[in-house]
C-alpha cells in the first residue's frame, strides 16, 4: 500500500484547450508579445507567477499580477471546464483505491479552482483530498510548496509516498519532499524532461500506472 499524490493538468486531465485559450486572452488583454501556438504548452504545469517572467522578462511584479488576473478572468468563466479526464484514468483510480492505496491530488492550480474541478468531475469518489497552490498564488506556489503542504495536512509518510506527474516541476517537487517519483508521458512533458528531472520509472497511459508503481516497489 502506498500514498499517491497526483498532479492534475496532464496527469488527471487534458486541460490544454482551456488553458491555451485563457493564455491567448491574457496576451491580447495585456498587450503582450504573441507566441507560436506550440509555445503555450510550456505554461501547463508550472506556476504562472514563475513562468510569466521567464517568457516575458519585461514584466515587473505588478504586471505579472495583472496578467494572472486576466488569465483567471477568462479561465474561471470559460476555460476551466474544457478539461477532459484521460481515458482509462478513473478505472485505474478505482483499482488503486480497491488495493488500499491512499489517493490525493497535489496541483499548482489555485486550491479553490482545483476544488471546483474535483466537484465537477466527482473526483472525491476516488481521492481523499485535493491540495493546490494558495489562492493568492504568492504564499504557496511551487509543486515543492504544494506537496509539502499536502504531506503535512495528510500526515502521510514521505517514505511511503509517490508523486505522479507529467512535468519536471512535479518530479522536482517530489525530490524536494523525499518521495518516490512516477512520470507519465501521456501528458505535456516528454520522457527526457521527466528523466532529466529525476524520474526513474515512466508510464505512457493511465492503465500502466499500477505496473509503474510495482516497479518502484522493487
From TrEMBL:
Domain of life: Bacteria
Family matches, as Pfam families: HAD_2
Single Gene Ontology MF annotation: protein tyrosine kinase activity
Cited Gene3D superfamilies: HAD superfamily/HAD-like (3.40.50.1000), Putative phosphatase, domain 2 (1.10.150.240)
GO cellular component: cytosol
PANTHER family: 5'-NUCLEOTIDASE, PHOSPHOGLYCOLATE PHOSPHATASE
Protein name, UniProt field: Haloacid dehalogenase
Amino acid at each position: 500500500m502506498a500514498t499517491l499524490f497526483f498532479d492534475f493538468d496532464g496527469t488527471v486531465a487534458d486541460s490544454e484547450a482551456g488553458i491555451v485559450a485563457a493564455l491567448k486572452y491574457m496576451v491580447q488583454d495585456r498587450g503582450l508579445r504573441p507566441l507560436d501556438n506550440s509555445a503555450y504548452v510550456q505554461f501547463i504545469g508550472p506556476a504562472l507567477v514563475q513562468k510569466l517572467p521567464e517568457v516575458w522578462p519585461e514584466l515587473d511584479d505588478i504586471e505579472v499580477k495583472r496578467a494572472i488576473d486576466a488569465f483567471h478572468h477568462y479561465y474561471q468563466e470559460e476555460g476551466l471546464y474544457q478539461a477532459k479526464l484521460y481515458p482509462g484514468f478513473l478505472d485505474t483510480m478505482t483499482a488503486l483505491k480497491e488495493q488500499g492505496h491512499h489517493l490525493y491530488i497535489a496541483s499548482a492550480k489555485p486550491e479553490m479552482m482545483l476544488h471546483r474541478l474535483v466537484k465537477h468531475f466527482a473526483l472525491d469518489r476516488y481521492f481523499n483530498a485535493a491540495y493546490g497552490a494558495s489562492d493568492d498564488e504568492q504564499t504557496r506556489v511551487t509543486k515543492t510548496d504544494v506537496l509539502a503542504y499536502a504531506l503535512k495536512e495528510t500526515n502521510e509518510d514521505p517514505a511511503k509516498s509517490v508523486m505522479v506527474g507529467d512535468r519536471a516541476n512535479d518530479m522536482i517537487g517530489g525530490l524536494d519532499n523525499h518521495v518516490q517519483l512516477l512520470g507519465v508521458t501521456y501528458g505535456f512533458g516528454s520522457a527526457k524532461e521527466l528523466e532529466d528531472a529525476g524520474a526513474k520509472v515512466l508510464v505512457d497511459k493511465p492503465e500502466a500506472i499500477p505496473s509503474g508503481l510495482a516497479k518502484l516497489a522493487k
